[in-house]
Specification:
Number of strands: 22
CATH topology: Tachylectin-2, Chain A
Order of helices and strands: HEEEEEEEEEEHEEEEEEEEEEEE
Distance between the termini: 62 Å
Shape: globular
CATH class: Mainly Beta
Bound molecules: beta-L-arabinofuranose
Number of helices: 2
Strand content: 35-45%
Largest sheet: 5 strands, antiparallel
Length: 325
């Protein structure tokens, strides 16, 4: 017979166990950047769902010596000061086809369902679904949506960093490291619609890795007025940062415009731009909390546009120390 004094703690554990594994919450306030300080986070993809802002991130481990990441988190806020960490919403353990490298994700809502796109093992992109923006997510199709095994020429050498845009009812997925690819998605969001194509960015033809408009990784596309803005990292050097190009069509061709922000101190630059309550914000990561490239932390700042639609470059008050690589 269970002792009486054990009944309460056991009951409490039973009640809390499902919450912990799915939506364990840490509540905190943003007082400065980086604004998430209780764990290391990177690659923020920010979206507004039902008038609340959600930021989907990858998660750097406390003892990381590489990007050996295991799960993904989502954070949300309705005033950008008070934040909830909804915990690990999906993890490598939930995926049959992968054992490592839970890298930069994205999430989108369509017809009341949330689709979470995740890159794994630097070779595959999968999709998981939920009826809530904070999960629980479950793998949607039990196999990768994209897998470059034997198809490097078509899919690219490193299909990572999926970014989803829905425009005019059509969903698009952008992805890739060093080689940018895009593909339409079917209305069910779990199947490709047509061929994978290369997105052209005019004006970067002579730009080399780490400089100018070189395409590095971390694509993100958003629409403002009638213009599509494509932002991405131009590499992993001391001066590399997020840059952008614009087009009147989602799949381009895009015209290179310039830098979005000052370089951060980590090798990697990865971010997203979102409109919330009539202001625009850029989410990005740096390594200011840890001083280590494999333990990054997400930040955000307001960003503005000039009259002609160009992005007013985000300038940090003091120039950060150069990158190490
Ligand atoms: O976080 C792992 C990788 O580092 C991402 O996929 C890249 O965009 C870079 O931030």
């Amino acid at each position: 017979m269970i002792k009486k004094k054990l009944v309460f703690p056991v009951l409490l554990l039973l009640i809390l166990a499902p919450l912990k594994s799915v939506n364990s919450q840490v509540k905190f306030k943003k007082d400065s950047n980086p604004f998430v300080k209780h764990l290391y986070t990177a690659d923020p993809s920010a979206h507004v769902f039902n008038n609340r802002l959600y930021v989907y991130t990858s998660h750097d481990e406390n003892d990381a010596a590489y990007f050996d990441m295991l799960d993904w988190h989502v954070f949300s806020s309705d005033n950008l000061v008070d934040w909830d960490d909804h915990g690990a919403i999906f993890s490598i353990d939930d995926i049959a086809c992968a054992k490592k490298w839970a890298w930069a994700p994205d999430c989108i809502e369509r017809n009341g369902t949330y689709y979470f796109y995740y890159p794994v093992e630097r070779t595959k992109i999968g999709v998981a679904i939920s009826d809530s923006p904070i999960g629980p997510f479950k793998d949607a199709i039990g196999k990768p949506l994209i897998d470059n095994t034997g198809q490097v020429e078509k899919i690219g050498p490193e299909p990572i960093d999926p970014a989803i845009l829905i425009d005019n009812g059509q969903a698009y997925m952008f992805f890739g490291c060093r080689e940018l690819r895009a593909v339409k998605l079917q209305d069910n969001m779990t199947e490709l619609d047509g061929d994978i194509s290369t997105v052209k960015i005019n004006g970067i033809e002579n730009d080399k890795e780490n400089f100018g408009g070189f395409y590095g990784e971390g694509p993100w596309v958003f629409k403002r007025k009638d213009t599509f803005y494509f932002i991405y990292s131009n590499g992993w050097g001391k001066e590399s940062t997020l840059v952008y190009a614009t087009s009147k069509k989602p799949l381009g061709p895009y015209d290179f415009k310039g830098e979005v922000m000052d370089p951060v101190d980590s090798w990697t630059s990865h971010g997203s731009i979102v409109e919330y309550n009539s202001k625009w914000y850029i989410f990005y990561h740096n390594m200011n909390l840890s001083g280590d490239n494999y333990r990054r932390s997400i930040c955000f700042d307001e960003i503005t546009f000039a009259e002609d639609g160009s992005i007013n470059r985000l300038v940090f008050p003091k120039k950060k120390k150069g990158k190490q690589k």
